[in-house]
Amino acid sequence: MRAIAAGLSDVGRERVHNEDRYILLPEFNVYVVADGMGGHEAGEVASRIAASAIAGYFREANGKRRKASTGDRLRAAVTYANARIFAHADDSRFYRGMGTTVVAAAFAPRERKFYVAHAGDSRCYLLRRGGFAQLTRDHSLIADALLERPDLTESDLAYLPRNVITRALGIGPSVDVDLRAERVEPGDVFLLCSDGLHGLVDDGEIARIIEDNAVLADACCKLIDCANENGGRDNITAVLIRIEETAAASWSQRQGAKTRNAR
């Protein structure tokens, strides 16, 4: 089995800077989306550190790390990124309080499993045989409230701020990282995205766009266009990973790796 992937990030219609960051590491079957936050462009710094730290962790893996399971290495990489961001913020008053959400994924072909680690409200979805499911749970004020009180109505939730997250990288010296493993099937498509996408495009439309666009780069572009058509109030990032039974051409693993900073 093999994974092919594409990604795209866009500044949106209202923001000046793009504080989202994503990476595709096909040589390790690792994929990351981070959505930064903080003043003085600190969000850009936090998400950049998160992406580079996770990439660096896998690229510089020593023998001990190779012996660890894929899931353990993924969680350790995210934890390492948290420490890097927190240390950087502690060194500069301009960056204190900066942080970033993260959703990171690793495909383990021999195990036939797809691991997802996350903190914050960036999400992972799975499209499988026409069904579309959210695999991650948002670490947000609203999601936490619903976890404790599933009976809360929309009118109850209206009193809660919708953009407050309760977990992120860089906010403290340690972070609780959720980890999930999903057994894969050929044809599975995983989506990693920031809230600039899932906050503006409903799940049904996201699934339809992915199903209607077999080329992953085209699907990423259509997803971002749809979010912009719905207001584009935030930065928008989408990474798509498809699991295939047969080997794909090597160039396709990097198809569509772009950032759109202006429209």
Topology readout:
Elements: E1 2-10, E2 20-25, E3 30-37, H1 42-59, H2 63-67, H3 70-91, E4 99-108, E5 113-119, E6 123-128, E7 131-134, H4 141-148, H5 154-157, E8 178-183, E9 189-193, H6 195-198, H7 203-212, H8 216-229, E10 236-244, E11 258-260
Parallel strand pairs: 1-11
Antiparallel strand pairs: 1-10, 2-3, 3-4, 4-5, 5-8, 6-7, 6-9, 9-10
Helix pairs in contact: 1-3, 7-8
Structural commentary:
There is one protein chain. The chain is an alpha+beta fold. It has one domain: Phosphatase 2c, domain 1 (4-Layer Sandwich), CATH 3.60.40. It has 8 helices and 11 strands. The strands form 2 sheets. A 6-stranded mixed beta sheet has the order 7-6-9-10-1-11. The protein has a 5-stranded antiparallel beta sheet with strand order 2-3-4-5-8, covered by helices on one side. Helix 1 (42-59) crosses helix 3 and helix 7 (203-212) runs antiparallel to helix 8. The N and C termini lie far apart (37 Å). It comes from Sorangium cellulosum (Polyangium cellulosum). GO terms for molecular function: protein serine/threonine phosphatase activity.
